[in-house]
Protein backbone atom coordinates (compact mmCIF):
# COMPACT_ATOMS: atom_id res chain seq x y z
CA UNK A 1 0.00 0.00 0.00
CA UNK A 2 3.01 2.33 0.37
CA UNK A 3 4.77 1.26 -2.84
CA UNK A 4 4.36 2.93 -6.20
CA UNK A 5 4.13 -0.52 -7.81
CA UNK A 6 0.74 -1.00 -6.09
CA UNK A 7 -0.63 2.17 -4.45
CA UNK A 8 -1.49 4.26 -7.59
CA UNK A 9 -3.25 1.27 -9.18
CA UNK A 10 -5.17 0.63 -5.95
CA UNK A 11 -6.28 4.28 -5.70
CA UNK A 12 -7.20 4.46 -9.39
CA UNK A 13 -9.35 1.34 -9.36
CA UNK A 14 -10.93 2.40 -6.06
CA UNK A 15 -11.92 5.79 -7.47
CA UNK A 16 -13.25 4.16 -10.65
CA UNK A 17 -15.43 1.73 -8.70
CA UNK A 18 -16.58 4.57 -6.42
CA UNK A 19 -17.56 6.78 -9.35
CA UNK A 20 -19.27 3.95 -11.23
CA UNK A 21 -21.45 3.10 -8.25
CA UNK A 22 -22.11 6.67 -7.19
CA UNK A 23 -23.43 7.47 -10.65
CA UNK A 24 -25.34 4.25 -11.28
CA UNK A 25 -27.02 4.21 -7.87
CA UNK A 26 -27.84 7.92 -8.02
CA UNK A 27 -29.62 7.21 -11.32
CA UNK A 28 -31.41 4.04 -10.18
CA UNK A 29 -32.54 5.52 -6.85
CA UNK A 30 -33.77 8.69 -8.55
CA UNK A 31 -35.80 6.75 -11.13
CA UNK A 32 -37.17 4.16 -8.65
CA UNK A 33 -38.19 6.74 -6.05
CA UNK A 34 -39.01 9.80 -8.20
CA UNK A 35 -40.08 8.63 -11.67
CA UNK A 36 -41.94 5.31 -11.42
CA UNK A 37 -44.57 4.14 -8.98
CA UNK A 38 -44.99 0.57 -10.27
CA UNK A 39 -42.98 -2.31 -8.71
CA UNK A 40 -42.59 -4.17 -12.02
CA UNK A 41 -41.38 -1.03 -13.86
CA UNK A 42 -38.92 -0.33 -11.05
CA UNK A 43 -37.51 -3.86 -11.19
CA UNK A 44 -37.26 -3.69 -14.98
CA UNK A 45 -35.40 -0.36 -14.89
CA UNK A 46 -32.97 -1.68 -12.26
CA UNK A 47 -32.41 -4.77 -14.43
CA UNK A 48 -31.96 -2.69 -17.60
CA UNK A 49 -29.37 -0.47 -15.88
CA UNK A 50 -27.51 -3.57 -14.68
CA UNK A 51 -27.71 -5.11 -18.15
CA UNK A 52 -26.34 -1.97 -19.81
CA UNK A 53 -23.32 -1.79 -17.54
CA UNK A 54 -22.69 -5.52 -18.08
CA UNK A 55 -23.22 -5.80 -21.87
CA UNK A 56 -19.86 -4.18 -22.82
CA UNK A 57 -18.01 -6.89 -20.87
CA UNK A 58 -19.69 -9.48 -23.08
CA UNK A 59 -19.00 -7.61 -26.33
CA UNK A 60 -15.59 -6.03 -25.81
CA UNK A 61 -13.66 -8.13 -23.28
CA UNK A 62 -11.80 -10.03 -26.01
CA UNK A 63 -10.47 -6.78 -27.45
CA UNK A 64 -9.65 -5.40 -24.01
CA UNK A 65 -7.75 -8.58 -23.11
CA UNK A 66 -5.72 -8.42 -26.34
CA UNK A 67 -4.85 -4.77 -25.73
CA UNK A 68 -3.87 -5.31 -22.10
CA UNK A 69 -1.48 -8.18 -22.95
CA UNK A 70 0.03 -6.53 -26.04
CA UNK A 71 0.29 -2.88 -25.01
CA UNK A 72 1.64 -1.04 -21.98
CA UNK A 73 -1.03 -1.52 -19.30
CA UNK A 74 -0.21 1.80 -17.64
CA UNK A 75 -0.73 3.60 -20.97
CA UNK A 76 -4.15 2.00 -21.39
CA UNK A 77 -5.08 3.07 -17.84
CA UNK A 78 -4.33 6.70 -18.72
CA UNK A 79 -6.50 6.60 -21.84
CA UNK A 80 -9.37 4.86 -20.04
CA UNK A 81 -9.34 7.33 -17.15
CA UNK A 82 -9.31 10.25 -19.59
CA UNK A 83 -12.38 8.80 -21.30
CA UNK A 84 -14.10 8.58 -17.91
CA UNK A 85 -14.03 12.38 -17.63
CA UNK A 86 -15.99 12.77 -20.88
CA UNK A 87 -18.41 9.98 -19.93
CA UNK A 88 -19.17 11.70 -16.64
CA UNK A 89 -19.81 14.99 -18.43
CA UNK A 90 -22.64 13.25 -20.32
CA UNK A 91 -23.89 11.63 -17.12
CA UNK A 92 -23.74 14.90 -15.21
CA UNK A 93 -25.84 16.60 -17.88
CA UNK A 94 -28.47 13.87 -17.48
CA UNK A 95 -28.47 14.27 -13.69
CA UNK A 96 -28.80 18.06 -13.96
CA UNK A 97 -31.71 17.76 -16.38
CA UNK A 98 -33.36 15.40 -13.89
CA UNK A 99 -32.78 17.95 -11.11
CA UNK A 100 -34.46 20.67 -13.20
CA UNK A 101 -37.26 18.20 -14.04
CA UNK A 102 -36.67 18.98 -17.70
CA UNK A 103 -37.44 16.33 -20.35
CA UNK A 104 -36.86 13.57 -17.78
CA UNK A 105 -38.26 10.70 -19.88
CA UNK A 106 -37.27 12.12 -23.26
CA UNK A 107 -33.69 13.26 -22.55
CA UNK A 108 -32.47 12.95 -18.94
CA UNK A 109 -33.07 9.21 -18.49
CA UNK A 110 -31.63 8.27 -21.94
CA UNK A 111 -28.50 10.36 -21.26
CA UNK A 112 -28.04 8.71 -17.88
CA UNK A 113 -28.49 5.23 -19.38
CA UNK A 114 -26.01 6.12 -22.14
CA UNK A 115 -23.45 7.13 -19.51
CA UNK A 116 -24.10 3.90 -17.57
CA UNK A 117 -23.40 1.91 -20.73
CA UNK A 118 -20.25 3.96 -21.43
CA UNK A 119 -19.02 3.35 -17.89
CA UNK A 120 -19.49 -0.33 -18.61
CA UNK A 121 -17.18 0.11 -21.62
CA UNK A 122 -14.72 1.96 -19.36
CA UNK A 123 -14.74 -0.89 -16.84
CA UNK A 124 -14.39 -3.49 -19.60
CA UNK A 125 -11.05 -2.06 -20.66
CA UNK A 126 -9.85 -1.37 -17.13
CA UNK A 127 -10.98 -4.69 -15.60
CA UNK A 128 -8.40 -7.09 -17.11
CA UNK A 129 -5.59 -4.67 -16.26
CA UNK A 130 -6.31 -4.30 -12.55
CA UNK A 131 -5.83 -8.05 -12.01
CA UNK A 132 -3.31 -8.89 -14.77
CA UNK A 133 -0.89 -6.14 -13.79
CA UNK A 134 -0.48 -7.59 -10.28
CA UNK A 135 1.75 -10.58 -11.19
CA UNK A 136 3.88 -8.13 -13.20
CA UNK A 137 4.40 -5.66 -10.33
CA UNK A 138 4.11 -7.91 -7.26
CA UNK A 139 6.13 -10.84 -5.98
CA UNK A 140 4.65 -14.32 -6.28
CA UNK A 141 3.72 -14.51 -2.58
CA UNK A 142 2.08 -11.07 -2.78
CA UNK A 143 -0.39 -11.82 -5.60
CA UNK A 144 -3.18 -13.29 -3.43
CA UNK A 145 -2.80 -10.46 -0.90
CA UNK A 146 -2.79 -7.89 -3.70
CA UNK A 147 -5.85 -9.49 -5.30
CA UNK A 148 -7.62 -9.45 -1.93
CA UNK A 149 -6.77 -5.78 -1.40
CA UNK A 150 -7.99 -4.86 -4.89
CA UNK A 151 -11.22 -6.79 -4.31
CA UNK A 152 -11.68 -5.31 -0.83
CA UNK A 153 -10.89 -1.83 -2.13
CA UNK A 154 -13.41 -2.27 -4.93
CA UNK A 155 -16.17 -3.12 -2.47
CA UNK A 156 -15.18 -0.36 -0.05
CA UNK A 157 -15.49 2.01 -3.01
CA UNK A 158 -18.85 0.47 -3.91
CA UNK A 159 -19.85 1.00 -0.29
CA UNK A 160 -18.84 4.66 -0.28
CA UNK A 161 -20.39 5.40 -3.67
CA UNK A 162 -23.59 3.60 -2.77
CA UNK A 163 -24.00 5.36 0.57
CA UNK A 164 -23.29 8.76 -0.96
CA UNK A 165 -25.79 8.14 -3.79
CA UNK A 166 -28.55 7.68 -1.21
CA UNK A 167 -27.62 10.77 0.79
CA UNK A 168 -26.95 13.53 -1.72
CA UNK A 169 -29.12 15.26 -4.30
CA UNK A 170 -28.83 14.61 -8.01
CA UNK A 171 -27.16 17.99 -8.61
CA UNK A 172 -24.51 17.20 -5.99
CA UNK A 173 -23.98 13.80 -7.59
CA UNK A 174 -23.42 15.50 -10.96
CA UNK A 175 -20.59 17.59 -9.52
CA UNK A 176 -19.10 14.68 -7.54
CA UNK A 177 -18.81 12.26 -10.47
CA UNK A 178 -16.93 14.83 -12.53
CA UNK A 179 -14.54 15.66 -9.69
CA UNK A 180 -13.78 12.00 -8.94
CA UNK A 181 -13.16 11.29 -12.65
CA UNK A 182 -10.52 14.03 -12.76
CA UNK A 183 -8.79 12.76 -9.59
CA UNK A 184 -8.85 9.22 -10.98
CA UNK A 185 -7.12 10.40 -14.15
CA UNK A 186 -4.39 12.07 -12.07
CA UNK A 187 -3.78 8.95 -9.96
CA UNK A 188 -3.80 6.76 -13.07
CA UNK A 189 -0.88 8.71 -14.47
CA UNK A 190 1.21 7.57 -11.48
CA UNK A 191 0.91 3.84 -12.27
CA UNK A 192 4.40 2.54 -13.23
CA UNK A 193 4.94 1.24 -16.78
CA UNK A 194 3.85 -2.36 -17.41
CA UNK A 195 5.05 -3.20 -20.94
CA UNK A 196 3.85 -6.31 -22.77
CA UNK A 197 5.67 -9.53 -21.88
CA UNK A 198 5.27 -11.13 -25.30
CA UNK A 199 5.74 -10.02 -28.89
CA UNK A 200 2.71 -7.98 -30.05
CA UNK A 201 0.54 -9.61 -32.71
CA UNK A 202 -2.19 -8.17 -34.89
CA UNK A 203 -5.32 -7.29 -32.94
CA UNK A 204 -8.54 -9.05 -33.94
CA UNK A 205 -11.32 -6.44 -33.98
CA UNK A 206 -14.02 -8.96 -34.95
CA UNK A 207 -15.76 -9.10 -31.57
CA UNK A 208 -17.62 -12.39 -32.15
CA UNK A 209 -14.69 -14.32 -33.61
CA UNK A 210 -12.18 -12.95 -31.09
CA UNK A 211 -14.52 -13.61 -28.16
CA UNK A 212 -15.10 -17.22 -29.21
CA UNK A 213 -11.37 -17.74 -29.76
CA UNK A 214 -10.49 -16.19 -26.40
CA UNK A 215 -13.02 -18.18 -24.38
CA UNK A 216 -12.29 -21.49 -26.16
CA UNK A 217 -8.55 -20.89 -25.78
CA UNK A 218 -8.98 -20.46 -22.02
CA UNK A 219 -11.80 -22.76 -21.01
CA UNK A 220 -10.06 -25.94 -22.24
CA UNK A 221 -7.80 -25.69 -19.17
CA UNK A 222 -9.77 -27.59 -16.54
CA UNK A 223 -8.92 -25.48 -13.50
CA UNK A 224 -9.63 -22.27 -15.41
CA UNK A 225 -12.93 -23.68 -16.65
CA UNK A 226 -14.03 -24.57 -13.12
CA UNK A 227 -12.85 -21.24 -11.68
CA UNK A 228 -14.52 -19.15 -14.40
CA UNK A 229 -17.85 -21.01 -14.23
CA UNK A 230 -17.82 -20.76 -10.42
CA UNK A 231 -17.13 -17.00 -10.54
CA UNK A 232 -19.87 -16.60 -13.16
CA UNK A 233 -22.43 -18.32 -10.92
CA UNK A 234 -21.38 -16.03 -8.07
CA UNK A 235 -22.00 -12.95 -10.21
CA UNK A 236 -25.32 -14.35 -11.41
CA UNK A 237 -26.36 -14.62 -7.76
CA UNK A 238 -25.00 -11.14 -7.06
CA UNK A 239 -26.86 -9.70 -10.04
CA UNK A 240 -30.18 -11.11 -8.88
CA UNK A 241 -29.60 -9.67 -5.39
CA UNK A 242 -28.42 -6.24 -6.53
CA UNK A 243 -31.32 -5.83 -8.95
CA UNK A 244 -33.81 -6.69 -6.22
CA UNK A 245 -32.49 -4.43 -3.45
CA UNK A 246 -34.01 -1.04 -4.47
CA UNK A 247 -37.53 -2.36 -5.33
CA UNK A 248 -37.46 -4.77 -2.36
CA UNK A 249 -36.61 -1.99 0.08
CA UNK A 250 -39.29 0.30 -1.33
CA UNK A 251 -42.13 -2.16 -1.91
CA UNK A 252 -41.57 -4.94 0.64
CA UNK A 253 -39.86 -3.18 3.53
CA UNK A 254 -41.60 0.17 2.87
CA UNK A 255 -38.37 2.11 3.44
CA UNK A 256 -36.84 5.14 1.74
CA UNK A 257 -33.81 5.33 -0.54
CA UNK A 258 -31.36 5.82 2.33
CA UNK A 259 -32.24 2.27 3.44
CA UNK A 260 -31.74 0.99 -0.12
CA UNK A 261 -28.26 2.52 -0.03
CA UNK A 262 -27.68 0.90 3.36
CA UNK A 263 -28.46 -2.54 1.89
CA UNK A 264 -26.02 -2.10 -0.98
CA UNK A 265 -23.45 -0.71 1.46
CA UNK A 266 -23.74 -3.62 3.90
CA UNK A 267 -23.32 -6.01 0.98
CA UNK A 268 -20.16 -4.19 -0.08
CA UNK A 269 -18.73 -4.20 3.46
CA UNK A 270 -19.39 -7.93 3.73
CA UNK A 271 -17.54 -8.77 0.52
CA UNK A 272 -14.60 -6.61 1.66
CA UNK A 273 -14.53 -8.45 5.02
CA UNK A 274 -14.67 -11.81 3.27
CA UNK A 275 -11.89 -10.79 0.86
CA UNK A 276 -9.52 -9.96 3.69
CA UNK A 277 -10.57 -12.87 5.92
CA UNK A 278 -9.94 -15.53 3.29
CA UNK A 279 -6.43 -14.18 2.65
CA UNK A 280 -5.68 -14.55 6.37
CA UNK A 281 -7.16 -18.06 6.49
CA UNK A 282 -5.16 -19.22 3.48
CA UNK A 283 -1.95 -17.50 4.60
CA UNK A 284 -1.29 -16.10 1.13
CA UNK A 285 -1.66 -19.46 -0.64
CA UNK A 286 -3.92 -19.73 -3.69
CA UNK A 287 -6.42 -22.46 -2.77
CA UNK A 288 -10.11 -23.26 -3.21
CA UNK A 289 -10.40 -25.41 -0.09
CA UNK A 290 -12.76 -22.97 1.68
CA UNK A 291 -14.80 -22.14 -1.44
CA UNK A 292 -17.47 -24.89 -1.21
CA UNK A 293 -18.39 -24.24 2.42
CA UNK A 294 -18.29 -20.47 1.81
CA UNK A 295 -20.82 -20.53 -1.01
CA UNK A 296 -23.09 -22.97 0.88
CA UNK A 297 -23.02 -20.55 3.81
CA UNK A 298 -23.92 -17.79 1.37
CA UNK A 299 -26.97 -19.75 0.21
CA UNK A 300 -28.03 -20.43 3.82
CA UNK A 301 -27.85 -16.71 4.62
CA UNK A 302 -29.95 -15.94 1.50
CA UNK A 303 -32.66 -18.28 2.81
CA UNK A 304 -32.50 -16.60 6.23
CA UNK A 305 -32.75 -13.19 4.55
CA UNK A 306 -35.77 -14.43 2.58
CA UNK A 307 -37.50 -15.61 5.77
CA UNK A 308 -36.99 -12.28 7.56
CA UNK A 309 -38.37 -10.41 4.52
CA UNK A 310 -41.47 -12.63 4.41
CA UNK A 311 -42.35 -11.83 8.01
CA UNK A 312 -41.53 -8.13 7.73
CA UNK A 313 -44.28 -5.72 8.72
CA UNK A 314 -43.53 -2.01 8.51
CA UNK A 315 -46.64 -1.04 10.44
CA UNK A 316 -47.14 1.91 8.10
CA UNK A 317 -50.16 2.72 5.91
CA UNK A 318 -49.77 1.99 2.15
CA UNK A 319 -47.71 4.60 0.33
CA UNK A 320 -45.77 5.76 3.37
CA UNK A 321 -42.07 4.95 3.66
CA UNK A 322 -39.90 4.43 6.73
CA UNK A 323 -37.00 6.77 7.29
CA UNK A 324 -33.52 5.43 8.02
CA UNK A 325 -33.98 5.99 11.76
CA UNK A 326 -37.42 4.33 11.74
CA UNK A 327 -35.98 1.33 9.89
CA UNK A 328 -33.12 0.89 12.40
CA UNK A 329 -35.65 0.94 15.24
CA UNK A 330 -37.64 -1.92 13.68
CA UNK A 331 -37.51 -5.18 15.68
CA UNK A 332 -36.29 -7.22 12.70
CA UNK A 333 -33.86 -4.68 11.23
CA UNK A 334 -30.73 -6.09 12.80
CA UNK A 335 -31.66 -9.65 11.83
CA UNK A 336 -32.14 -8.47 8.26
CA UNK A 337 -28.81 -6.64 8.18
CA UNK A 338 -26.98 -9.54 9.86
CA UNK A 339 -28.20 -12.03 7.25
CA UNK A 340 -27.29 -9.62 4.46
CA UNK A 341 -23.80 -9.17 5.91
CA UNK A 342 -23.48 -12.95 6.12
CA UNK A 343 -24.42 -13.34 2.44
CA UNK A 344 -21.76 -10.87 1.36
CA UNK A 345 -18.98 -12.04 3.69
CA UNK A 346 -19.38 -15.65 2.60
CA UNK A 347 -19.49 -14.49 -1.02
CA UNK A 348 -16.22 -12.59 -0.65
CA UNK A 349 -14.54 -15.64 0.90
CA UNK A 350 -15.77 -17.70 -2.04
CA UNK A 351 -14.80 -15.52 -4.98
CA UNK A 352 -11.42 -13.94 -4.11
CA UNK A 353 -9.29 -17.12 -4.32
CA UNK A 354 -10.94 -17.93 -7.64
CA UNK A 355 -9.79 -14.61 -9.09
CA UNK A 356 -6.26 -15.38 -7.87
CA UNK A 357 -6.45 -18.66 -9.81
CA UNK A 358 -7.00 -16.72 -13.03
CA UNK A 359 -3.72 -14.80 -12.82
CA UNK A 360 -1.50 -17.50 -11.29
CA UNK A 361 -2.55 -20.54 -13.35
CA UNK A 362 -1.35 -19.14 -16.67
CA UNK A 363 1.82 -17.42 -17.87
CA UNK A 364 2.01 -13.77 -16.83
CA UNK A 365 1.96 -12.70 -20.49
CA UNK A 366 -1.53 -14.25 -20.85
CA UNK A 367 -3.02 -13.02 -17.57
CA UNK A 368 -5.05 -10.14 -19.03
CA UNK A 369 -6.61 -12.33 -21.71
CA UNK A 370 -7.51 -14.92 -19.08
CA UNK A 371 -9.26 -12.25 -17.00
CA UNK A 372 -10.95 -10.98 -20.17
CA UNK A 373 -12.22 -14.48 -20.99
CA UNK A 374 -13.56 -14.68 -17.44
CA UNK A 375 -15.27 -11.30 -17.92
CA UNK A 376 -17.00 -12.50 -21.10
CA UNK A 377 -18.43 -15.57 -19.37
CA UNK A 378 -19.25 -13.59 -16.21
CA UNK A 379 -21.07 -10.87 -18.12
CA UNK A 380 -23.05 -13.40 -20.10
CA UNK A 381 -24.11 -15.04 -16.83
CA UNK A 382 -25.02 -11.65 -15.34
CA UNK A 383 -27.13 -10.71 -18.38
CA UNK A 384 -28.87 -14.08 -18.03
CA UNK A 385 -29.44 -13.32 -14.33
CA UNK A 386 -30.91 -9.93 -15.19
CA UNK A 387 -33.10 -11.49 -17.89
CA UNK A 388 -34.36 -14.16 -15.50
CA UNK A 389 -35.22 -11.44 -12.98
CA UNK A 390 -37.19 -9.52 -15.60
CA UNK A 391 -38.91 -12.72 -16.66
CA UNK A 392 -39.86 -13.71 -13.11
CA UNK A 393 -41.27 -10.21 -12.53
CA UNK A 394 -43.26 -10.46 -15.77
CA UNK A 395 -44.77 -13.74 -14.56
CA UNK A 396 -45.74 -12.17 -11.23
CA UNK A 397 -43.06 -13.71 -8.99
CA UNK A 398 -42.50 -11.18 -6.22
CA UNK A 399 -39.04 -9.97 -5.27
CA UNK A 400 -38.95 -11.88 -1.98
CA UNK A 401 -39.53 -15.25 -3.66
CA UNK A 402 -37.01 -14.39 -6.38
CA UNK A 403 -34.35 -14.51 -3.66
CA UNK A 404 -34.74 -18.29 -3.51
CA UNK A 405 -33.20 -18.54 -6.99
CA UNK A 406 -29.95 -17.16 -5.55
CA UNK A 407 -30.04 -19.75 -2.76
CA UNK A 408 -30.57 -22.60 -5.22
CA UNK A 409 -27.65 -21.50 -7.42
CA UNK A 410 -25.28 -21.64 -4.43
CA UNK A 411 -25.61 -25.45 -4.38
CA UNK A 412 -24.34 -25.71 -7.96
CA UNK A 413 -21.57 -23.23 -7.14
CA UNK A 414 -20.44 -25.38 -4.19
CA UNK A 415 -20.30 -28.48 -6.39
CA UNK A 416 -18.11 -26.71 -8.96
CA UNK A 417 -15.88 -25.24 -6.24
CA UNK A 418 -15.35 -28.69 -4.74
CA UNK A 419 -14.32 -30.04 -8.14
CA UNK A 420 -11.86 -27.13 -8.48
CA UNK A 421 -10.45 -27.83 -5.02
CA UNK A 422 -9.92 -31.51 -5.87
CA UNK A 423 -8.37 -30.65 -9.24
CA UNK A 424 -5.91 -28.05 -7.99
CA UNK A 425 -5.10 -28.43 -4.30
TrEMBL record:
Topology relative to the membrane: Multi-pass membrane protein
Entry's transmembrane regions: 43-67, 79-100, 106-131, 167-186, 224-246, 258-278, 290-313, 333-358, 370-393, 399-417
Highest taxon, organism lineage: Bacteria
Cell wall biogenesis/degradation listed as a keyword: no
Keywords: Cell membrane, Membrane, Transmembrane, Transmembrane helix, Transport
Example GO molecular function: transmembrane transporter activity
Gene3D superfamilies according to UniProt: MFS general substrate transporter like domains (1.20.1250.20)
Gene Ontology CC: plasma membrane
Subcellular localization, as worded in the UniProt entry: Cell membrane
Any Pfam family matching the protein: MFS_1
Protein name: MFS transporter
Organism: Sphingobium jiangsuense
